[in-house]
């Protein structure tokens, strides 16, 4: 199972992902890196929780804060 997740995440590098976080925030950005703990580095990240998206730039999100990951279609 972890092999399939790792393969899916590797295929999603440099693509847009949407993360729903434990603090009710929703973050979108380009997936650059991840590790076995699902810590992720995103570029061009935005907090899209509010009506007006807030630009965050390059961010690192700890895997234990992530509830869901959506791989957005191109």
UniProtKB/TrEMBL annotation:
**Taxonomic superkingdom:** Archaea
Question: Per the database record, which ranges form the Sm domain?
Answer: 4-74
Q: What is this protein called?
A: Ribonucleoprotein
Q: InterPro entries in the record, alphabetically?
A: Lsm7/SmG-like, LSM_dom_sf, Sm, Sm_dom_euk/arc
Q: Does the keyword DNA-binding apply?
A: no
GO CC terms, sorted: ribonucleoprotein complex
Is Transmembrane included in the keywords of this UniProt record? Answer: no
Q: What is the lineage of its organism?
A: Archaea, Nitrososphaerota, Marine Group I
| UniProt keywords, alphabetically | Ribonucleoprotein
